[in-house]
Hints:
Elements: H1 12-24, H2 30-58, H3 62-70, H4 73-87, H5 92-107, H6 114-126, H7 129-141, E1 144-145, H8 154-162, H9 165-177, E2 196-197, H10 202-210
Helix pairs in contact: 1-2, 2-3, 2-4, 2-5, 3-4, 4-5, 4-6, 5-6, 7-8, 7-9, 8-9
Amino acid sequence: MHVTELEPYAWQAEAKLAAALLDKLGVPATPLLEYFEATRERQARRVADTLHQTAQFSGLTPDQVVSRAANDDAVGDLLGDTLRAAAHARATEKIRALARVLAVAMGGGDGTRVDDLHIVVDTLDKLKVLEIRGLHAVGAAGPVGGAQDPIESNWLLIAKELRSEALASPVQKRLTDLTLINPEVDDIPESGAMFLTARVSPLGRRILSFLADQPTEL
């Protein structure tokens, strides 16, 4: 079933309305307008950076990237979703990952259908910096089972990475809800089981393949 989504707000109309209301209240509107303008400029830089990195990863020029998207509806839709996610990205790693996704779409590098890449972009868009760090920590630990004893839970790995037990639980829940990590790992007894259980789901491994570096918050 096809669902047509609304374009995200550009906020110009809202900024003008807020400025008019503040003017009536006798409150200076300049700081608010400057804030909206600075936000727009930051988003534009992130979009431009994503296009530039996509070109680098795919061996194309930015103009060729846009041209391919213009001539292929599926790639064009993915480009729009990816750039919207990039505009609001809060980590340089996420921008690089989004650019890598687009590069795959440009060249079909790993045989992935463009439609499947929408899931990757949507998941990357939802991930926060702390959640990316948590996913890295769980992914680096490898599977559980065999001769491993005692077993470190996903929660403990995340808590160590974030240096916070309070943050570990919501981050673990978020990664589980996004089906990126396996919740069954935390139910395995603390003794070496004679089987291996993956900590990270197939989608989680896919996301980690695009997230190559530790995140740096913008």
